[in-house]
Amino acid sequence: MKKGGAASVAAWFLVAMVVVLVAEVHETAAANCVPTELSPCLAAITGGSPPSPQCCSKLREQQPCFCGYSKNPALKPYVESPNAKKVAATCGVAFPRC
Fold first, then answer.
1. What is the spatial distance between Cα 72 and Cα 48, in angstroms, rounded to a whole number?
2. Which pLDDT band holds residue 23 (cuts at 50, 70, 90)?
3. Do the beta carbons of residue 83 and residue 44 sit within 8 Å?
4. Contact, 12 vs 66, CB < 8 A?
5. Once rounded to an integer, what is the mean pLDDT over residues 44-54?
6. Alpha carbon distance 52, 44 (integer Å)
7. What is the DSSP code (8-state) at residue 72?
């Protein structure tokens, strides 16, 4: 992937996460589901690099939110991507069946 393409994907991912955050404010307060909390996992999910310890920690915190994220059209491609599942497996986080 070209350098500009990776930056574009990263920017799109962050924009999508912000949109979801704004759209789901009422759910966020109740379930602590904040998609932007997963930003430490961005490089691992979009580029296939190994997840950092901070990424794994955030995945564990956000695990109850995965089904909700996968139902959101803006986040679904990231949550259900092969790299996301690899990152979750590497971190020892079970990927739920939704």
1. 22
2. very low
3. yes
4. no
5. 94
6. 8
7. S
